[in-house]
TrEMBL record:
GO terms for molecular function: D-glucose transmembrane transporter activity; fructose transmembrane transporter activity; microtubule binding. It is found in: Cell membrane, Sarcolemma; Cell membrane. It comes from Danionella cerebrum. GO terms for cellular component: sarcolemma. It catalyses: D-fructose(out) = D-fructose(in). Residues 274-709 form the Major facilitator superfamily (MFS) profile domain. The chain crosses the membrane at residues 269-287, 322-343, 355-374, 386-404, 411-433, 445-466, 532-555, 561-581, 593-610, 616-643, 655-678, 684-705. Residues 89-138 are annotated as: Disordered. This is SKA complex subunit 1. Signal peptide: none annotated. One of its GO terms (biological process) is dehydroascorbic acid transport.
Length: 751
């Protein structure tokens, strides 16, 4: 057993002494508790000790709370430190323009408001949203700034050298002009000074039916309230903002028929250009289509007598019919050949020079026709018909290009209708001069066939007094001075050509470095796919709608006078269409024309069927034929011919015109060759084939062709993209919803 040392004994002694002291105090306290005088003091001490214990408990809880708060403050300090770092980073890297709350970065999202505000996209599914706040009466909408994704999606040819900051600076300047303008408009007249009152009155005068209830500004407002220069750079930035759907352009009040005529009359040289180019252009095309109807007997007689003199025998009826069919059809072959090279030659040598050289073919053809009877050679008639065909093919293409490029944008529809009007006038002139009282007699028919040479000679002598196409000079020759000089000559000194020159320059900038495209480029380029489809549908239908065969329902004894009547009807309605096209719009005329033609063909089929049963039914057929010609001349005939020059940019025009008029000549040839066979097998039910073409073309125009009235080529191209982009997005949305439903159904069947 271990012995304890001295220290351990002392600790035990102290411990025992403490316990004895504690017991003594407890005994003393017990004695005190029995003392009534000191019991009250003990109770008071007990209460104070209890209070102290409570205070200690509360203090402990407070310490715990403070420790928790300290932890939260530490975490908050770390959070604020991170925010401080983010703020410093944003300060160093934030872009100069930030989108406002609720703006979507999708460049194609949203729906444009009349001039410059854009509403957000509608939700794809029902959502719980707060009730919309009531808009303030004088709240001014601002154009949203362009986001970086939107700027990146702008085509490079449209952006040019414009930067992101420059574009948004323009947006801010336009917003400044809008705010300044409507601040004046919203004020009471009594609070304005004289200058502000004048401005307010001017703003109210600018209000039109199209701009009512919308925020809009005009060029004068931009000059009044901003430091912007309205130049070609500003126009290009407007095109970019329009591409991003920040605003839409309203081109003033709707032009009336009388207003368009007054504006046209103020440009006498433009009127002269319409007639001079038309005489040697589409007039030749229409004239040579109808001119062979009257002298057919004399030409067959010449063919027969020539073979009798050469070979000592007359031709069999089938041989004579074969030669006659070749004389008629070779015109289409020549026209097709002329169309194939017309666009390329016009692009290299110019529109005016091409038309001048083209007239040499017409003059040579007229000389051959004039000498054919004297020489006793029907081959000269064949060669002349080929030359006439080449002349008509070139004239049909280049005349359309030239006259559309000479016309101001506000008159482009009216001037474009003159292309169809001169074709109708050519047909009617050929029918009128072919009657026996004029040139339809045996001793005068060669003068009738040589009339095209005289028309070509007339254009050859007068065309040098006209200027070259302004668009050709600027966009393909880059000669701005010559372009402005040509515009001043054509439009007169009163009209300022600078706005349209700026639009041409914008197109020139868009096409800078782009060569004239080939036919293969046109067929393969996806960006002009819908324009090409529009071209194919309209030009195929204009020949296969039945206009060249609709007189088949007229009795042969009345055909001569009916042809004159239909020709006169076509000319008059074509001229009437030229007066209303700027008011109505080309898309409406095209759609309405095709559908009414389809309805008329159905009724015509019915009346032809009932002719053998009802005596007065042939008169109904005649009325329907005139109605059909009216709808054709006021719609497809007037709008289709100039269509390639309106929906294609300058680099695509030559191949576009080539495709258009190749389809035109091919359709003319096929109708001439196949329609007699179709009539032989289907009789009057052949018009149902034409009904199908008219009906489906009308539906196609309604769903796939935008309005082209008073728009530039770039605006029309953007409308094509926007129209079919919306349909593609809608289709994708529908397919997506179907796919989701399929997944939901599949999942439910598993359970």
């Amino acid at each position: 057993m271990r012995k304890m040392n001295h220290c351990e004994l002392e600790e035990v002694t102290h411990h025992i002494n403490d316990k004895i002291s504690t017991l003594k105090r407890l005994l003393e306290l017990r004695a005190v508790a029995k003392d009534p005088d000191k019991r009250g003091m003990l109770l008071k001490i007990e209460q104070e000790v209890t209070c102290i214990n409570d205070l200690l408990d509360r203090f402990e809880r407070y310490v715990v709370q403070q420790r928790d708060l300290l932890k939260h403050l530490k975490a908050l300090e770390d959070f604020f430190h991170e925010d401080e770092l983010d703020a410093h980073h944003m300060k160093d890297n934030v872009p100069p323009h930030m989108p406002k709350r609720g703006q979507h970065s999708n460049p194609h999202g949203g729906e444009q408001v009349a001039v410059q505000s854009r509403q957000p996209d509608a939700p794809s599914a029902p959502q719980v949203t707060e009730p919309p706040r009531k808009a303030q009466r004088n709240q001014i909408k601002e154009m949203e700034i362009i986001t970086v994704p939107e700027f990146d999606n702008i085509p490079p040819y449209m952006k040019g050298r414009v930067t992101y900051d420059q574009l948004n600076t323009t947006v801010e300047s336009i917003n400044k002009a809008v705010a300044a303008k409507y601040k004046i408009l919203h004020q009471s007249v009594k609070t304005l000074n004289n200058a502000s009152r004048s401005l307010q009155q001017r703003f109210k005068d600018q209000e039109t039916k199209e701009t009512k209830g919308q925020f809009f500004i005009v060029e004068q407002d931009i000059k009044e309230f901003t430091q912007l220069k309205v130049d070609k750079r500003f126009v290009s930035m407007l095109n970019m903002l329009r591409h991003c759907q920040r605003f839409r352009e309203v081109r003033g009040r709707r032009q009336t028929m009388a207003g368009a005529l007054r504006e046209l009359i103020k440009s006498p040289l433009l009127v002269a250009a319409i007639f001079i180019s038309g005489i040697g252009g589409t007039f030749q095309y229409g004239f040579n289509i109808s001119v062979l109807n009257s002298p057919s007997f004399f030409i067959k007689e010449l063919v027969n007598s020539t073979c009798q003199q050469r070979y000592g025998r007359s031709l069999e009826p089938w041989q004579l019919s074969l030669i006659w069919s070749f004389i008629v059809s070779v015109y289409s072959i020549g026209g097709l050949a002329g169309t194939l090279y017309a666009g390329r030659v016009a692009g290299v040598y110019g529109r005016k020079t091409t038309l001048l050289m083209n007239n040499i073919l017409a003059v040579c053809g007229g000389v051959l026709m004039l000498l054919s009877k004297t020489a006793g050679s029907f081959e000269m008639i064949m060669v002349a018909r080929v030359l006439y065909g080449v002349n008509a093919g070139v004239g049909l293409t280049v005349h359309t290009m030239y006259i559309l490029e000479c016309a101001p944008k506000r008159l482009r529809g009216m001037v474009g209708v003159s292309v169809a009007s001169f074709a109708s006038m050519g047909k009617f002139t050929g029918q009128l001069l072919g009657i026996s009282e004029v040139f339809g007699a045996e001793d005068r028919w060669i003068w009738l066939l040589s009339f095209s040479g005289a028309a070509g000679l007339l254009q050859l002598l007068t065309l040098p007094f006209l200027p070259e196409s302004p668009r050709y000079l600027l966009l393909e020759k880059a000669d701005k001075h010559s372009c402005e000089t040509a515009l001043l000559k054509l439009w007169g000194r009163e009209k300022d050509p600078r706005p349209e020159v700026e639009e041409m320059l914008a197109e020139h900038a868009a096409l800078k470095g782009v060569r004239i495209h080939s036919l293969m480029n046109l067929l393969m380029d996806q960006s002009v796919r819908w324009q090409l489809l529009t071209l194919i549908v309209t030009f195929v239908t204009v020949q296969l709608c039945g206009i060249n065969a609709v007189t088949a329902g007229i009795a042969k004894q009345n055909l001569r006078y009916a042809a004159l009547g239909t020709g006169l009807c076509e000319v008059s309605t074509s001229i009437f269409c030229g007066l209303i096209i700027e008011h109505t719009g080309k898309r409406v005329l095209l759609f309405r024309g095709y559908l009414f033609m389809a309805a008329t063909l159905l009724l015509l089929t019915l009346t032809l069927y009932l002719q053998d049963f009802v005596s007065w039914m042939p008169y109904c057929s005649m009325v329907l034929i005139f109605m059909y010609i009216f709808f054709f001349s006021t719609g497809p005939a007037a709008v289709t011919a100039p269509l390639p020059g309106e929906i294609f940019t300058q680099s695509y025009k030559p191949p576009a015109f080539m495709v258009a008029y190749v389809l035109n000549w091919t359709g003319l040839f096929l109708v001439g060759m196949l329609f007699p066979l179709i009539v032989e097998h289907l009789d009057y039910f052949c018009f149902l084939i034409f009904f199908i073409f008219c009906f489906f073309s009308g539906v196609f125009v309604w769903f796939h062709v935008p309005e082209t009235k008073n728009k530039t080529v770039l605006e029309i191209s953007e409308d094509f993209k926007r129209m079919h982009q919306k349909r593609r997005n809608s289709l994708q949305s529908k397919l997506g919803s179907i796919h989701i439903n399929d997944i939901q159904i599949t999942t439910s069947t598993k359970f």
